[in-house]
Design a protein that fits this description.
- The termini are far apart.
- The radius of gyration is 14 Å and the shape is globular.
- It is of the alpha/beta class.
- Strand 2 (43-51) and strand 3 (54-61) form a beta hairpin.
- The protein has helices at residues 3-11, 29-36, 68-75, 84-91, 132-139, and strands at 19-21, 43-51, 54-61, 64-66, 80-81, 103-108, 118-119, 126-128, 142-145, 148-150.
- The protein is 27% helix and 28% strand.
- The protein has five helices and ten strands, in the order H-E-H-E-E-E-H-E-H-E-E-E-H-E-E.
């Protein structure tokens, strides 16, 4: 996913200035936290799954992990992540907004304990500063779920 697509999406919402671009990679929670200068838990990581014949993204706090019983209760199936080479063509990337049509977005409750979170902004060296409410508006239509446990 091109960062330009995300910037254009955020520009329409008056939030383009919130995009942070880094010299170094922010592709993992730890690297993103170092680049942003925040605790890893505030990184809003985007996990991609097959749910039946659909694709679903679960956006969770950086210190959260999928809780398999909660996931199965929510989605009616075992958690099966997309292969790395499937994400770009099916989703358009792993940013939780400016996605391809037909992608379901779920925000995990683990994010609500923070006033600010940092999801990716379209490439492996970027992030965007948002409140959980702003993330919800940008990711709409989306649904809040409780499918993770904080470790």
């Amino acid at each position: 996913m091109a960062i330009d697509k995300v910037k254009a999406f955020l520009r329409e919402r008056g939030m383009e200035e919130r995009v942070l671009e880094f010299e170094a990679s922010s592709a993992t929670v730890e690297l993103a936290a170092q680049a942003v200068g925040c605790e890893p838990a505030r990184i809003a990581k985007t996990l991609s799954f097959h749910v039946g014949d659909r694709v679903a993204l679960v956006v969770a706090a950086g210190d959260a992990r999928i809780d398999n019983p909660k996931y199965k209760a929510q989605f009616g199936c075992k958690a099966k992540m997309l292969a790395a080479d499937e994400a770009e063509p099916l989703i358009g990337g792993v940013c939780p907004f400016a996605l391809n049509e037909g992608v379901d977005v779920f925000l995990d409750e683990s994010l609500r304990r923070f006033d600010t979170v940092y999801p990716a902004a379209g490439n492996a060296a970027s992030a965007v500063r948002l409140t959980p409410d702003e993330l919800e508006r940008c990711a709409a239509p989306c649904t809040w779920v409780d499918v993770c446990k904080v470790v």
